[in-house]
Amino acid sequence: MSYLSRGEGPVPAGLWDQIDEAVISAAKKTLVGRRFLPVFGPLGIGAESINIDDVDGVEENYDDGLMVTTGRKFVEIPTIYDDFTLLAKDLEYSAKYGYPIDLAKAMASAEAIAQKEDRLIFFGSKDYGYEGLLTAKGVNKVKKGDWKEGENAFADVASAIELLAEKGVFGTYSLIVSPDLYMQMQRIQPGTGLLEIDRVSKLVNGHIYRAPVLGSGKAVLVCSESRNMDLVIGQDMAAAYLEQVDLNHSFRLIETVLPRIKRRQAVVLFT
User: Fold this and answer.
1) Helices (DSSP H) in 134-193: which residue ranges?
2) How far is it between the farthest Cα atoms of the chain?
3) Residues 115 and 199 sit within 8 Å (Cβ to Cβ)
């Protein structure tokens, strides 16, 4: 792993293993997008770009000996990163007395990376031309009722699923909601003895995800099959050695990821 400069700094192999374990553990507890999006990769750090196809419109066109694929564009896979520092005296103390290193800063960086990844998945980046599930043009939209009242949440999600079925979009449906909407469904429905969230959960076979990066009042339903969308991973989340500053050791946690929306009709945004 020369790209990560793991052989350049005075960091023993055993510590790298501990960092990897801490980073993966923290990231798994934070990531939301990877819980419902199919993963394409990892392709390696050398994968700089990849195609995004409009699966309903991609085709090869021939004209006078020239062949061009329409409905396809090639997009750079962006890098997400966050830095953290381990104190030199802590490493020396651990090496001398055998005490474990406190890797809280590495775990905090992993959580930060996970949130940045989720923001890219849901909101994309307007400045750099990346689309997210909530910002992509041409997706379906359903007017959201007040989910604190009646059975509005159940009715809205049922309407969204019916809309997808009408458009011929079938498969695994996943509902992703902001924390406030998730809590608004934690109430007993009169006359049923069931929580609203339990009724909604049955509509999507249990695939309900709470995403803190959504903020408040936001929800989206997707048919999360690989033909409709996925998450491209070049370099999966890993720590690299940066430099030694003031005797302390600086690290950079990086990954290269890109959400691909290949079928916009597979997304229903509640507005």
Assistant:
1) 152-166, 179-184
2) 75
3) no
Are 87 and 103 contacting, i.e. CB atoms less than 8 angstroms apart? no
The full set of domains in the chain, from first to last, is: 2-132+228-262 (3.30.2400.30), 140-223 (3.30.2320.10)
Q: CA-CA distance, 90 to 133, in Å (whole number)?
A: 43
**pLDDT range class, residue 8, cuts 50, 70, 90:** low
Which tens digits make up the pLDDT trace of 34-77?
Answer: 999 999 999 999 999 999 988 888 888 888 889 988 888 999 99
Coil/strand/helix, residue 35: helix
Q: Quickly count helices (H) and strands (E) in the chain.
A: 7, 16
Tell whether the model's pLDDT for residue 2 goes beyond 80. no
Name which of 105, 103, 133, 130 is nearest 36 in CA terms: 133
Residue 83 to residues 3, 23, 87, 111: CA-CA distances in angstroms?
A: 16, 12, 14, 12
Minimal CA–CA distance to 77: which of 104, 99, 50, 98?
50
- Other CB atoms within 10 Å distance of the CB of residue 10: 12
pTM for the whole thing?
A: 0.92
Which bin fits 98, alpha (ψ -120 to 50), beta or left (φ > 0)?
Answer: left
